[in-house]
Amino acid sequence: NAGVTQTPKFQVLKTGQSMTLQCAQDMNHNSMYWYRQDPGMGLRLIYYSASEGTTDKGEVPNGYNVSRLNKREFSLRLESAAPSQTSVYFCASSQTKNTEAFFGQGTRLTVV
Amino acid sequence: TQLLEQSPQFLSIQEGENLTVYCNSSSVFSSLQWYRQEPGEGPVLLVTVVTGGEVKKLKRLTFQFGDARKDSSLHITAAQPGDTGLYLCAGAVAAGNKLTFGGGTRVLVKP
């Protein structure tokens, strides 16, 4: 079972560069999420999509954009990377907001 | 200010001791989940509590959902080194669509 697949696993960017983090789930889940996790901290919600065709801001959306391409895929874009965006990014999916969230392996992003 | 406040942030105990982690909010949640995260991995679900006052047990772990559905606790009895990890509570408010996490409690159980 693939579950939630995130790519890439590691990335180094220079300040000002752009990139897109890809996420796909094969569980037919309605909800998908992007979180960031800084060292020793919990997860902060960047954006989420409660269903195909909808996206909403989370706690820390500034500097990011998302696309719910279809029910399976939810991508996160950094248009102009900043050192403050150095973090580990997790994509997750769940059937509803009240059911188990399944996570990808994470993307470790460093912006220099 | 986070929607879900966890305490303590860090807990270091000896093997065999008990510990309790708290998750508090001023909002009412339709459900609350507890996850455990190992280094380099994504969080993995331990339990979901739905009903106010609900108590669930998972071996040596006991989870409780507050009567008003605004808070929850995780109690570990006779902790073992294998219980070491980051414990995260997460929930969705009744009127919303998103799953929000607390700041996490890092637990270290020393042999």
Summarize the SSE layout with pairings:
The complex is a heterodimer of chains A (112) and B (111).
Chain A: E1 4-7, E2 10-13, E3 19-25, E4 31-37, E5 43-49, E6 56-57, E7 64-68, E8 74-78, E9 87-94, E10 102-103, E11 107-111
Parallel strand pairs in A: 2-11
Antiparallel strand pairs in A: 1-3, 3-8, 4-5, 4-9, 5-6, 7-8, 9-10, 9-11
Chain B: E1 5-7, E2 10-14, E3 19-24, E4 29-37, E5 44-49, E6 55-58, E7 61-65, E8 71-76, E9 85-93, E10 100-101, E11 105-110
Parallel strand pairs in B: 2-11
Antiparallel strand pairs in B: 1-3, 3-8, 4-5, 4-9, 6-7, 7-8, 9-10, 9-11
Summarize the structure.
The complex is a heterodimer of chains A (112) and B (111). In chain A, 0% of the residues lie in helices and 50% in strands. By secondary structure, chain A is mostly beta strands.
Structural notes for this entry:
The complex is a heterodimer of chains A (112) and B (111). Chain A is mainly beta. Helices cover 0% and strands 50% of the residues of chain A. In chain A, strands 2, 4, 5, 6, 9, 10 and 11 form a seven-stranded mixed sheet that branches. The radius of gyration of chain A is 13 Å and the shape is globular. By secondary structure, chain B is mainly beta. Chain B is built from no helices and eleven strands. In chain B, strands 2, 4, 5, 9, 10 and 11 form a six-stranded mixed sheet that branches. A five-stranded antiparallel sheet of chain B has the order 1-3-8-7-6, with no helix packed on it. At the A-B interface, strand 4, strand 5 and strand 9 of A face strand 4, strand 5, strand 9 and strand 10 of B.
